[in-house]
Specification:
It is a single chain. The protein is of the alpha+beta class and about 650 residues long. It is about 55% helix and about 10% strand. The protein has helices at about 35-45, 55-60, 70-85, 115-130, 155-185, 210-225, 235, 245-255, 300-315, 335-345, 350-370, 375-390, 395-410, 415-430, 435-445, 450-465, 465-480, 485-495, 500-515, 520-530, 535-545, 550-560, 565-580, 585-595, 600-610, 630-640, and strands at about 10-15, 15-20, 25, 30, 50-55, 95-100, 105, 110-115, 195, 200, 230, 260-265, 270-280, 285-295. α22 (about 550-560) packs antiparallel against α23 (about 565-580). The chain is elongated, with a radius of gyration of 30 Å. The N and C termini lie far apart (about 85 Å).
């Protein structure tokens, strides 16, 4: 028996109700999250209760011949999702769906058709949307376990009550909903916020990770340009790569309300991108769509997804405002874009071999499209941050960085990445933090949600002797990038210099908890906290936990001096001088200043200036240099660094 089309609005079986118009599945009034393909599969089975629906029929209806998918994997996944939603295991005791091996599936439970309940619920939902377009986000949190439609009259009652009754019902229902949401919503995000997780590579060869992750990162970059939207940084969001985490866990760890996830299938020049925007607290779909395109149209897909997400979030959270206009990537050449994604993929790995590969692909992108501004900005960043590994002469890397940054901004005066790299050059290389702040302000105006800009802002505040401001900026950055141990380390250093020692220890503990295998500097900074408190023995014990290398030698040289053990302080200092003349000049100057050897301290600090040592960013607030501050040479060095006295 096939259900009449006019009646196939709401089908009930057991505790479940399926609305075939709004595509919603509910259990005892509680909405169950079910993705689009699994829902379509369930709907097809409900069209013919009791009849076998063959696998071939499902393939023809759900995955037409012009779409390329792994059918066996796709149908097995879809049926698994349906069974999970219906809380059945799929064994011989299935209550709702029977599997006929190698043939198909059959819906076997008694089903009851009711168009009225679903229609009434949709009317109330429409009223809610109209009545509360200005309401805060938490209005949309579902009241789990409570059936709203049971209190709503049927369609015959609504018909003679006219539209105002619907509005009243909507307002009453929404007020109950809102009060419950305010009291019971999880303590996660309370502002517009989203995390973009790395898209899964479902390509046949599983060799398109650079492409799938790059696409997700491009969409993330687009979203950072939306004002008043908190976008989790890539570094934190991509830590969930390959992890099948519950959306609530992801939402709580990243402190976001919404999550964008997706997948990419690529075969030769055809690409299928599936994206899904869900609520973190309950996993409900806000939007989902699949795009089957030629590779040359990937820019349009990327833009469509970003605009759809922006629209969904803004219509929900910023009522009355049109979706933000988002630009495409700036090249029409797919080969250029592929090379660019490859370059950025390797740049994130931060080792010498990967840096060389990143430069190779960035060069390829520029060769294939000499007018592609993002490729110049990317290459400039690689040259600046990895130049010491890739170039024999670091000054060569600096010159290349300057050229590429100027070229990127000339090609695209609205490229935020170009201004951020320019700010890095001005602060790290030219020691001109004031000009760097001007450039960075332009980058922030263009991409207000980019956490990298906040981190650099904190660095510039610290550089100019504003540690309180730096602390607040690093805390703001950590709201967007909560799983970054290095940022907690920077925060701890600023707190240490402000004398907020317990807070500093808390930040160090967080850094260690996030990445116990990468502890460089954590124990050394922890030891410095003890030194600042006048506890040298505890400082030494902490320093000795630091892995062998520059920072352990630095810590031990400081701690042994504080304990009055001069010869034992000399040994690690000698190791730094012999092994780190070109990358440890600032640290050598710190030790000499702490030991009261003023002339040698200025000798090495001036060498650090010549070498563009990034450690000089701490020069104005560094407590280890306190003994130098009354010396005229200190003021001279401040002037060289373009820092206020």
């Amino acid at each position: 028996m096939q259900l009449p089309a006019t009646e196939r609005q709401c089908v009930r079986f057991g505790p479940f109700a399926v609305d075939l118009v709004s595509h919603e599945l509910r259990s005892n009034g509680r909405k169950i999250n079910l993705q689009e393909k699994p829902f379509q599969l369930l709907a097809i089975l409900l069209e013919h209760p009791g009849r076998l629906v063959t696998r071939e029929e499902l393939r023809d209806r759900l995955w037409p011949a012009d779409t390329f998918v792994d059918f066996e994997h796709s149908i097995n996944t879809a049926i698994k999702k349906v069974r999970e939603a219906l809380e059945e295991s799929g064994d011989h005791h299935s209550r709702f769906i029977e599997t006929l091996p190698r043939r198909g599936y059959r819906f076997i439970a008694p089903a009851e058709v009711s168009g009225e309940d679903c229609a009434a619920l949709r009317l109330v939902s429409a009223g809610l949307n109209n009545a509360f377009t200005e309401a805060p986000q938490r209005v949309e949190t579902r009241h789990k376990g409570q059936s709203l439609w049971r209190a709503v009259p049927d369609q015959r009652t609504l018909a003679w009550g006219s539209v105002p009754i619907l509005v009243v019902l909507a307002i009453v229902a929404a007020s109950i909903w809102y009060r419950h949401a305010q009291s019971n919503a999880p303590a996660v995000a309370t502002i517009a916020s989203i995390a973009v997780l790395p898209f899964a590579d479902l390509s046949p060869g599983h060799d398109q990770e650079y492409f799938s992750e790059g696409l997700a990162e491009e969409i993330l970059d687009h979203l950072t340009k939306i004002p008043n939207l908190k976008v989790t940084a890539r570094a934190s969001a991509f830590q969930f790569k390959g992890k099948n985490k519950d959306s609530r866990v992801v939402g709580q760890k990243l402190d976001v309300a919404d999550i964008l996830e997706g997948s990419v299938q690529r075969e030769k020049n055809r690409v299928r991108v599936t994206a899904r925007l869900i609520k973190a607290d309950d996993g409900y779909d806000l939007w989902s769509e699949s795009f089957d395109r030629d590779l040359k149209d990937i820019f349009a897909v990327e833009d469509d997804i970003a605009k759809a997400v922006a629209s969904a979030l803004q219509l929900k959270l910023l009522a009355g405002r049109s979706p933000t206009t988002l630009t495409t990537s700036g090249t029409t050449n797919p080969e250029t874009y592929e090379a660019f994604l490859h370059a950025r993929y390797f740049a994130h790995m931060q080792d010498e071999e990967s840096a060389r590969k990143a430069l190779l692909y960035a060069n390829k992108a520029i060769q294939s499209d000499p007018n592609y501004a993002p490729a110049y900005a990317l290459r400039a960043g690689i040259e600046l941050e990895s130049g010491g590994m890739v170039f024999v002469d670091y000054s060569e890397a600096i010159e290349k960085t300057r050229h590429d940054t100027e070229k990127a901004i000339a090609l695209d005066p609205n490229l935020a990445d170009g201004y951020r790299v320019l700010s890095m050059i001005q602060s790290w290389v030219e020691s001109n933090c004031r000009e760097a702040e001007t450039s960075l302000k332009r980058a922030i105006d263009l991409a207000p949600g980019d956490p990298d800009n906040l981190g650099l802002s904190a660095w510039l505040a610290m550089c100019q002797g504003r540690p309180e401001e730096a602390v607040e900026l690093w805390k703001q950055e950590l709201l967007l990038d909560p799983l970054r141990p290095d940022e907690y380390l920077f925060l701890a250093q600023s707190l240490r210099d402000l004398g907020r020692y317990e807070e500093a220890r808390g930040a160090l503990a967080k850094a260690l908890d996030l990445n116990p295998n990468q502890v460089s500097m954590i124990h050394e900074v922890g030891g410095e906290v003890y030194l600042a408190q006048g506890r040298p023995q505890e400082a030494l014990a902490e320093m000795e936990k630091e892995p062998a290398g520059l920072y352990r030698d630095l810590g031990e040289a400081l701690a042994y001096h504080a304990l009055g053990r001069r010869q034992e302080s000399d040994a690690p200092l000698a190791r730094i001088i012999s092994q780190h003349t070109n990358d440890g000049a600032y640290q050598i100057g710190q030790v000499y200043a702490y030991r009261g050897e003023t002339d040698r301290a200025f000798e090495w600090l001036n060498r650090a200036y010549i070498q563009h040592d990034p450690g000089l960013g701490w020069f104005k607030t560094d407590l280890k240099l306190k003994s130098l501050r009354k010396d005229p040479r200190y003021a001279l060095l401040l002037k060289k660094l373009n820092l206020p006295e």
